[in-house]
Specification:
Layout (H helix, E strand, L loop, with lengths): L1 E5 L2 H18 L6 E5 L6 H12 L8 E5 L1 E3 L10 H8 L12 E2 L8 H14 L5 E5 L20 E4 L2 H7 L13 E4 L2 H5 L3 E6 L5 H8 L18 E6 L8 H11 L5
Parallel strand pairs: 1-10, 2-3, 2-6, 3-5, 6-9, 9-10
Antiparallel strand pairs: 4-8, 7-8
Helix pairs in contact: 1-2
The protein binds 2-amino-2-deoxy-6-O-phosphono-alpha-D-glucopyranose (GLP).
The site of 2-amino-2-deoxy-6-O-phosphono-alpha-D-glucopyranose (GLP) has 14 residues, from helix 5.
Length: 263
């Protein structure tokens, strides 16, 4: 696992955007570059920087297919808290060459959630899998909507949200946890770890425990993010604020090893 520690949120986002753009640009195959994407506040800065790069002609999304991590069950696209809305508002609508037909987001209004999830897995497989999955994590370490104790080999499916997650996410729903949908559709931990590379953003003091669990804790279904330790191409991009619960040794190790600034 690589852990890239940046001074603050802005630098973390710049690093991640540069990394993603470099990967897209290095992709010379005719088949599209397949990019997994998250929602939440963590990736917003990365999206802004990718938009700037796209507008400046530094990266093209013409040959990029995207798959989003998750979607609330029961929220229509037009709802301003649906992840479909979030992704278009914060990212897709601002790119100059993203093809709408290349955007994949689970349909939260489906009549057949199981079928929708199975089709999503099949579609990912039809492209030969995901090249790079960017993610964020919750304060309890959930990756996508894989709450604590979700199987580390889980696939795309319906998830029950914990009360804790509904409380945390209620900041987007008028501070009323009851307004936060109780269920979501989400890629599984196994879906994420099947990707060739996984890049997870961890920022802020409130994520310090989750970062320590991801990097130093035991691999455990209690912290679903810890599954990344078993992945051969996992990168954590974090800021100083999130490092508060790492041991000094761990912190120094990653600063030392990353000093050479390899992209
Ligand atoms: C939601 C999303 C997750 C995201 C998490 C953290 O629960 N389903 O995919 O990682 O929020 O969000 P934030 O980055 O706002 O802390």
């Amino acid at each position: 696992m690589r852990v890239v520690i940046q001074e603050d949120y802005d630098r973390m986002c710049q690093w991640a955007a540069d990394y993603i753009a470099a990967k897209i640009n290095a992709h010379k195959e005719a088949r599209p570059f397949v990019l997994g994407l998250p929602t939440g506040s963590s990736p917003i800065g990365v999206y802004q920087k990718l938009i700037e790069k796209n507008k400046a002609g530094e990266v093209s999304f013409r040959n990029v297919v995207t798959f989003n991590m998750d979607e609330y069950l029961g929220l229509p696209r037009e709802h301003d808290q649906s992840y479909w809305y979030f992704m278009h508002d914060n990212f897709f609508d601002h790119l100059v060459d993203m093809k709408p037909e290349n955007i994949n987001i689970l349909n939260g209004m489906t009549d057949d959630p199981e079928g929708e999830c199975a089709r999503y897995e099949e579609k990912i497989a039809s492209y030969g899998g995901i090249d790079l999955f960017m993610g964020g994590i919750g304060v309890d370490g959930h990756l996508a909507f894989n709450e604590p104790f979700t199987s580390l080999s889980s696939r795309t499916g319906v998830r029950d949200l914990t009360t804790d997650t509904r409380i945390v996410n209620s900041r987007f729903f008028g501070n009323d946890p009851e307004k936060v949908p109780a269920k979501a559709l989400s890629v599984g931990i196994g879906t994420v770890t099947d990707s060739k590379e996984v890049l997870v953003l961890i920022s802020g003091h409130n994520k310090a425990r989750a970062l320590a669990a991801t990097v130093e804790g035991a691999v455990s279904q209690k912290w679903t993010c810890s599954a990344l330790q078993l992945h051969n191409g996992a990168i954590i991009a974090c800021d100083e604020a999130a490092c508060g619960e790492l041991t000094v040794d761990t912190y120094k190790y990653f600063l030392d090893i990353e000093r050479k600034e390899r992209l």
